[in-house]
Amino acid sequence: MNHVISIVLWLYVRLALLYPRELREAFGDEFLAVFDLKLREAGSRGMLAVTAVVWAEFRNLPGIVVQTGWSTERIRPTWQQRAAIWAAMAPFLLSALLQAGKGLTVVGTHSSATG
């Protein structure tokens, strides 16, 4: 599980580069520390909990990046622009999560056969 968390944190740091420099400098360390804490707490509950944390954090990232980046220029992104950014990032995020989860087993599942 620590390997998965390390990969997700690496990805998060890279994606944080999409934020405007001023925002990263002011809050980047705090964002990373909070995300790291959430991931580690979720890691103790299993892969599904980690996936939920990653989804909750990454699902709004494209819109936040667009809003914060463009708000400094006084431009409001359209929903089509937000959707286009999310569509461009989604395959990369999904691929990274699938690669991170290779070889992991799901804990707590079982099948029972009734005789």
What are its keywords?
115 residues; mainly alpha
- Strand percentage lies at under 5%
Order of helices and strands: HHHHH
Structural class: mainly alpha
DSSP strand tally: 0
Distinct helical segment count: 5
The largest sheet is: none
Give the domain tally. 1
Low-confidence stretches: none
How many whole angstroms does the radius of gyration measure?
A: 17 Å
How much helical structure, as a percent, in the residues?
Answer: over 70%
Shape: globular
Q: Compute the average pLDDT.
A: 75
What is the rounded distance between the termini? 36 Å
Quick rundown:
This protein is mainly alpha-helical and 115 residues long. It is 73% helix and 0% strand.
3D structure, described in words:
There is one protein chain. The protein is built from 5 helices and no strands. The protein has helices spanning 2-16, 21-43, 47-58, 61-71, 79-101. Helix 1 packs antiparallel against helix 2 (21-43), helix 1 (2-16) runs antiparallel to helix 5 (79-101) and helix 4 (61-71) packs across helix 5 (79-101). It starts with a helix and ends in a 14-residue tail after the last helix.
Layout of SSEs?
Layout (H helix, E strand, L loop, with lengths): L1 H15 L4 H23 L3 H12 L2 H11 L7 H23 L14
